[in-house]
Write a structure and sequence with these properties.
Elements (H helix, E strand, L loop, with lengths): L1 H8 L9 H26 L3 H21 L3 H21 L5 H20 L10 H5 L7 H30 L1 H6 L4 H23 L1 H18 L3 H26 L3 H18 L1 H4 L1
Helix pairs in contact: 2-7, 2-10, 2-11, 3-4, 3-5, 3-9, 3-10, 4-5, 4-9, 7-9, 9-10, 10-11, 10-12, 11-12
């Protein structure tokens, strides 16, 4: 980290002479590829609402951790993983549509989180930071955790990337070729659960889903093949993250909201020009 700080201190960028801005920049450089990669499979697998439901379950875990005096993030990760596993189990044994199950799980997670947070007349205001997020508060230790998660997800992508694509596009074909569809889907949902839970502190629950959907949705508008699809998704996530950080610094606004708005602009531009590249 000392090298990282020294590098930016030597450059004529006043914004990045502050340690908290240097930490935020590094965190976003780690988070953006994570969101860009996961976004492609979330959009391809039509799991946009599921990622939102995971964010709600993470909030419930945070509320449980705060009430019990435990580390909120650790409890949230455990609760989100349990939520993802339970959803995968019910989905594999139900004839209900996926969006119906997701709606039920999501509303239950929200209700449980609010109930626990306000139990005994407790104030909800202390949880507002999790709704909005603050990447400027990220610590070097948390950046280390993000780096480990990014490496783990990259390894996961190398091993399971092709399987995930086939499972998302045509589960029956994947099954006929001997792939364990349910196991692959479960591993991916757990992967999403961990990333969503870790990011909620810095991006915010209200903005989280846009970062998991818009990068790939924008990439889909301008991509001609699968390689471009993944590449553009990561590129758009990185671009929006860096622009959002700069905009939020100069205007004194929420970084998560600024990133989401940048992604919305990128999606709009890619939508307008989609016919010219198709």
């Amino acid at each position: 980290m000392n090298l990282w700080y020294a590098f930016w201190d030597a450059l004529p960028f006043e914004m990045l002479h502050w340690a908290f801005m240097q930490n935020a920049l590094l965190a976003l450089l780690l988070l953006a590829p994570l969101f860009g990669l996961l976004s492609t499979m979330i959009v391809t697998g039509r799991m946009s609402f599921f990622s939102d439901a995971l964010g709600h379950s993470a909030f419930t875990g945070i509320a449980i951790g705060c009430i019990c005096g435990l580390a909120p993030t650790a409890v949230a990760v455990a609760f989100s993983v349990a939520f993802a596993l339970l959803f995968s189990y019910v989905r594999s044994r139900s004839n209900q549509a996926a969006d119906t199950l997701i709606g039920g799980f999501s509303s239950t997670a929200v209700a449980l989180g609010i109930f626990i947070a306000t139990l005994g007349g407790g104030s909800f205001t202390k949880y507002n930071k999790y709704l909005i997020g603050d990447v400027l508060s990220v610590s070097p230790a948390e950046i280390g955790i993000l780096a480990i998660v990014l490496v783990a997800v990259a390894v996961f992508w190398v091993i399971f990337g092709n399987r995930l694509i086939l499972v998302s596009i045509h589960p029956q074909l994947a099954s006929s070729r001997g792939l364990k569809v349910k196991t692959t889907q479960t591993l991916f949902t757990v992967c999403i659960a961990v990333v969503v839970t870790l990011a909620i502190n810095w991006v915010g629950l209200l903005m989280l889903n846009s970062l998991l959907v818009l990068p790939a949705a924008s990439a889909r508008n301008v991509s001609k093949n699968l390689k471009q699809y993944h590449g553009f998704s990561v590129l758009f996530a990185l671009t929006a993250s860096l622009l959002g950080l700069v905009i939020s610094y100069h205007l004194g606004a929420s970084t998560g909201a600024a990133i989401s708005l940048c992604l919305a602009v990128i999606f709009t531009v890619s939508f307008v020009f989609r016919k010219k590249v198709s």
